[in-house]
Amino acid sequence: MLPIALTVIAGVYLLAALIVLARQKSEYSHNRHTISEIGEIGAPRQRFVAFGLFLPVGLLLLIVAWLMQPVSAASAALALCISIGYLVAAVFPCDVGSPLTGSVCQTIHNLGGAVEYIGGSFALLRIAEDLGSPFRVAGFFVLGAAIALSLTPLASVRGIVQRLAELCLFMGLALSIWYKVFHSSGAVALVR
Question: What ranges in the chain are assigned the alpha helix state H?
Fold first, then answer.
């Protein structure tokens, strides 16, 4: 039960903080801008975003990964991938505008994001082997989102794409934990 609670707390905290912090950054748009841009280098709340938002979310999910390891390696891997994305973002903020290429800090930031999205998509696909097609759809969506986030023509909607990918990751994690905890005698497929 604790891993589900920690996952929900991390997701709700992230959502609430994004709503509040977006209002404090001029011209920030949830449609166009990535989550990381709220804490980009030089942003007014850069330190709070790094250490008051990204770090706690990453640490909570790291605990979830540790707690889930004996129960489900795939759910633990998903939690770890998301955790790495947030922990790397806490230590290596993105450049202004979060470009695909940039400073060394931006490159490391992007690598953390790649672990979160690409690793997370493969973890969701692994979870789908036990729990069914909704996790497969989520996994392929997250993988597609990782590709879409790097395409310049989609820059006007990359915020929406990223938030949908985050929703797939967090919901996939919470649901996979719920199924593993409450159906521990074996996996129960959602939809085959």
Answer: 2-24, 46-48, 55-68, 73-91, 104-114, 120-131, 133-148, 158-182
